[in-house]
Design goal:
With 253 residues, this protein is α/β, with parallel strands linked by helices. Helices cover 31% and strands 29% of the residues. It has a 6-stranded mixed beta sheet, sandwiched between helices. The protein has a 4-stranded antiparallel beta sheet with strand order 2-1-4-5, covered by helices on one side. Strands 11-12 form a two-stranded antiparallel sheet. The longest helix is centred in the middle third of the chain and has 15 residues.
């Protein structure tokens, strides 16, 4: 079953044609990577799929329902978006920041429950921040703040997760830990990642969408789509594929 899909989607920003008449279906348990050069429109496409930007034409559906007909609160109960950058203009604790992820599930004027707080504590432990609940959000490093943002997305408990550079600011250890957490098999969840690391895409994603910035896109399984020829055309730079421990790796020539 498709969790999110688009039909004949055309997206353009300034002079960049992100996609034209794109038809895409993302099903449960699928992990999609969006790859492309800087400025090709990866973030714009992700924001369009989340309903934050209006496409030039085409439809986006959550399940069988058009995204634009759903109240934003209902959208937020089904679809979560991790932004590329986190901005904190006011002080608050890590616990308070992550609790924001529960707001789509609360009624008007309803406070978070003990079970909400316990979910946050458990999720902070999952991302390695179990001792940070009372830390000020303004005192965190870039990597720590990124893991707080990921925890906020996880406690939102949506079936669809759109993640813009989820490993931004993270060291190699935390990059792989986060990708393992996010791609853990779950019959009810699908992920779509904007990534810059082709090797993370090859290792953790089963599908890929290549965006060329001129309206051309290429989609399919990572086995089929991620090739030396396709990636060299995408990045305008030659890459070589090697195999090690039954895992494909791409290195720049």
């Amino acid at each position: 079953m498709s969790l999110i899909s688009c039909n004949n989607l055309t997206v353009k920003i300034a002079d960049t044609q992100v996609c034209e008449n794109l038809t895409l279906s993302i099903k449960t348990r699928e992990n999609w990577a969006i790859l492309g050069m800087n400025g090709c429109g990866k973030t714009t496409l992700l924001h369009s799929l989340a309903g934050l930007l209006l496409p030039q034409s085409g439809d986006i559906n959550i399940g069988t329902i058009n995204l634009n007909t759903l109240p934003r609160r209902e959208v937020a109960q089904q679809l979560g978006l991790l932004l590329q950058h986190q901005e904190d203009h006011f002080p608050g604790t890590v616990l308070e920041a992550v609790l924001i992820g529960r707001h789509p599930h609360l009624k008007s004027w309803q406070w978070e429950t003990e079970s909400d707080e316990q979910l946050v504590i458990d999720t902070l432990k999952l991302v390695g921040l179990e001792h940070f609940s009372q830390r000020s959000i303004l005192t965190l490093s870039g990597g720590e703040r990124q893991r707080v943002a990921l925890a906020t997305l996880l406690v939102q408990q949506t079936k669809i997760r759109l993640l813009d550079e989820p490993v931004n600011h993270l060291d190699i250890h935390h990059q792989h830990e986060v990708m393992k957490i996010l791609t853990k098999n779950d019959d009810n969840i699908a992920n779509m990642f904007v990534l810059h690391d082709v090797n993370l895409a090859a290792r953790y994603c089963d599908h890929a969408l290549l965006i060329y910035g001129d309206g051309k896109v290429l989609q399919g399984t990572t086995t089929d789509v991620l090739s030396e020829k396709n990636l060299a055309e995408l990045y305008l730079y030659p890459l070589q594929e090697i195999m090690h421990n039954n895992q494909r790796w791409f290195i720049a020539n």
